[in-house]
Amino acid sequence: MNKLKVLLAALALCTFSSVVMAQSSGNFDAAATSAFCTLNSSTGALSPVCGIGDQPACPILDTTIKTSSGSGVTLVVTPSGVTGLLTDTKISGTVTSAAADVGIEVCLSIDGSANGILPNGNVVAQPDGTTAECVTYDQRFQQLSSSFFSTIAACVPAACTVSAAGDTCAAGTGPCIQTDPLCDPTTTTCGGVCSAPANTSCTLELLLSTLAAHSFNFVAQVPNGQHKVHASWQVFGVNQTNGSSSVAACFGPGTLTVTQTKIFKNSESTLTF
């Protein structure tokens, strides 16, 4: 019985040691930005803005990780962060439509490789089978248009009067609604407002479309050795129509985490490189 106990204890120790050794084959590293995106709750302004015109570029994150030997070594790289977008569209009597488009994308490279691609590996698979180094973390399209500035007087109900002879509202805009309910139209003329405007096609339209993904897992299979992981944040898709729109973007705080893992092929695996 004592020999059996010693044997079981030895087996348990071997099992524990193998688990520790298996876990120690993994690796992890991280980096963080010092930028801190803020939004002014009174004006909507963002600060510090990045990547538009003469404004400073968005933060860049770099880290390194040393991978273990063996086949199927894979990095899971996750850039995460707070993003801010501002789109301001202004219209007037001479400019009846204005649009603005701005976005922030995250681009990744490993060991300076083009499109983040390493031999026998990819970063992001696209629907057409190609690979890309950048992922949209935020994008907004905003458009404001109107049709009433040139005929604004006809877009509101007109003043009218009502008396025993009838009301003065134009055809299709009545009846005249008295502003003084105590006035008696059978004995005097009472003021009021027509129930409908002369122009019923006046419109003001605001269109917003947004894409967002504030964290994303990039996956890349890599060989054994030390690898430099580089993530950058850049503004793209800037469009300010008619000179009556303005845009801004900011990023931060943000983190970049890199975890080493391994791909184990099995009958149910769907991840391929």
Net shape: rod-shaped
Compute the number of strand runs: 17
Question: Could you list the spans in which at least 5 consecutive residues all have pLDDT below 50?
Answer: 2-25, 114-122
Q: How large, in whole angstroms, is the Cα Rg? A: 33 Å
Give a short account of the largest sheet. 5 strands, antiparallel
Q: What structural category do the secondary elements indicate?
A: mainly beta
Q: Please state how the strands of the largest beta sheet are arranged side by side.
A: 4-16-6-9-14
Strand content: over 45%
Quaternary assembly:
single chain
Characterise the protein shown here.
The chain has 273 residues and is mainly β. The protein contains one helix and 17 strands. The protein has one helix at 2-24, and strands spanning 27-32, 38-39, 46-47, 60-67, 73-89, 97-110, 124-125, 131-132, 134-146, 159-163, 166-167, 176-178, 190-194, 204-212, 218-221, 225-240, 245-262. The strands form five sheets. A five-stranded antiparallel β-sheet has the order 4-16-6-9-14, with no helix packed on it. It has a four-stranded antiparallel β-sheet with strand order 1-17-5-15, with no helix packed on it. A four-stranded antiparallel β-sheet has the order 11-10-13-12, with no helix packed on it. Strand 10 and strand 11 form a beta hairpin. The chain is rod-shaped and about 100 Å long. The two termini are 52 Å apart.
